[in-house]
């Protein structure tokens, strides 16, 4: 008698968020459903009226007070209630801000996670007092807390299941992007945002432009996820994804060559690439990893005295719900940019010295015989058990030619190791990998950020050369500004420590006829014929529209403008429906926060608490004459990446102090953009206006920028910018730095459009911009986020 056929199961493709997509059942055997792709599950018989990216779908789920039928898209401002919010050593400064705005109880204690990870080697009375204050505050509030030495906050968020696939998590740290490695939309926030979330469970976000990065091919043996992101940072090094949300995609064959640990490393360093998030799909590789974590938690999980049990988050029942309907991007979703990279053409890469924008094939640096002083296997980027195993394998392989004895690291080299967390270190010990590195002469450090952020033991001294598996290598990041720092994979770091120079373990073999890495912009080479034709038509339509707009400025975005007119944004009582003023033109890119409000005034409380005094030095380091040229009511317009640099809020409040209600730029530094809304300064990005102004007022110097730009004067007290990379040097105009243009700029808030009048007799043109919804209007009307929180705590009055 034959075996009975297993019963077919019917499931419906569904969106984990709100969706009105029409779907039909998929008939399949249970074994087939176990390996079915999220793309198939999310496929509907009728395309959605407004296709969304994965980023937009997740934001849709965590947005509050959306209008009926509203489908969020890139450019929209939304009120967010994130699934989780993590703070680390800066928890106490957040707590003081939280208490200063009148809050006493955290709104949702399940939403908050606190970790101590940055300065864990510092045993000074001052630091220990701060750590004690944070721990006591967490205990009093009843939130999950992880003490110093337990692990790096981002690793804890992932391994403890706080960063959950298909959810949105934020943290007061720039490497929150790492959560994207497990399909969780992670993005950084500033301290005021964190305090707002603690007090109300909410903050705001503007959905950034979204870039799609399609990975093709398979990784060769000896090439890692670290090589992928180092190559991306170095090969696409012209700010292609600056302030974008990134979505990585590829075929199942390609994605199978990127295990979760590699994805975490890639997502982590999308921060260095300039992005605000780096999101991987919820696919079968992730599914297997999650199942293993849930099994481990159920068998080996141990109770924590300061945090809730891991099994509350990692359990198979929760995973069953997750994989019943995993989120995936819709077919036809609109991306601001598309890049592609053929993994099969990659070789091991090394970043630096002192810049992630410089990436060189390992073979080229090996030929240069670059001697080393220090090597580091530390940080949340690459110090998990798999990374430690890869580094240990270098020494174990070398032991085979050394009578079975683990060889010592090269004379004159210090090799430092710190696991991403205690569980990762314990796993490495159980595998014998940690001991192998210690036996080779590696120096153990407690689990924490340490040398990666220039704190504690093992910093680079003047004239030294170091190589690290961490994420940042800008000058001075890991010690002296007179040192050189390189970044590489764990195995290259280990091999370099063993040989005393930049070197690889010899696991990679270059293909015959290799001519370089295949990569580029646009996605045609990665699409099927049908999808390529669809994209070709869409791109052609966009090109025609752009050409028509260029020939007739007034017609640009006519359709969007009509649509905006038909669906007006509600305006709160007392909020201006329009903001109008003369354009004050500051023709430069990369105007940093020090140029806007000099560092020497930042911590002079008497000065910075006086708007009248602040107004006298606004933009002083950019143009000393600015204060005498600017008038109340002007609209300040500048180039690209305005407000890059540190996180000082005074850069926004100084502009307001001058009587300028609004800044327009080609693009903003992300932290400045957040600080602007948080302090009631309005801003909008209009790249086309920058092009028109530069054509009308051509005063940029044709000569290259100075070879040694003026250093940014960042005060030591500004620890909030501790992990912020230095901005690019500002471009230097050849003539007047600040120009009264006679042009008029109007932001029609209700219609979500801007109107530019190019002088009394010049052209007038319009362009649609992102909506400023009532929730964000309310923040501005209350004088900023702190004022809004106070209102909410008072019952919304």
UniProtKB/TrEMBL annotation:
InterPro entries: Acnase/IPM_dHydase_lsu_aba_1/3, Acoase/IPM_deHydtase_lsu_aba, Aconitase/3IPM_dehydase_swvl, Aconitase_4Fe-4S_BS, Aconitase_4Fe-4S_dom, AconitaseA/IPMdHydase_ssu_swvl, Homoaconitase_mito, Homoaconitase_swivel. Residues 562-688 form the Aconitase A/isopropylmalate dehydratase small subunit swivel domain. Keywords: Amino-acid biosynthesis, Iron, Iron-sulfur, Lyase, Lysine biosynthesis, Metal-binding, Mitochondrion, Transit peptide. GO terms for cellular component: mitochondrion. Residues 73-500 form the Aconitase/3-isopropylmalate dehydratase large subunit alpha/beta/alpha domain. Binds 1 [4Fe-4S] cluster per subunit. It is found in: Mitochondrion. It catalyses: (2R,3S)-homoisocitrate = cis-homoaconitate + H2O. The keyword Acetylation does not apply. Residues 699-736 are annotated as: Disordered. GO terms for molecular function: 4 iron, 4 sulfur cluster binding; homoaconitate hydratase activity; metal ion binding. Pathway: Amino-acid biosynthesis; L-lysine biosynthesis via AAA pathway; L-alpha-aminoadipate from 2-oxoglutarate: step 3/5. It comes from the Eukaryota. Its cofactor is [4Fe-4S] cluster. Belongs to the aconitase/IPM isomerase family. Catalyzes the reversible hydration of cis-homoaconitate to (2R,3S)-homoisocitrate, a step in the alpha-aminoadipate pathway for lysine biosynthesis. This is Homoaconitase, mitochondrial. It comes from Cryoendolithus antarcticus. The lineage of its organism: Eukaryota, Fungi, Dikarya, Ascomycota, Pezizomycotina.
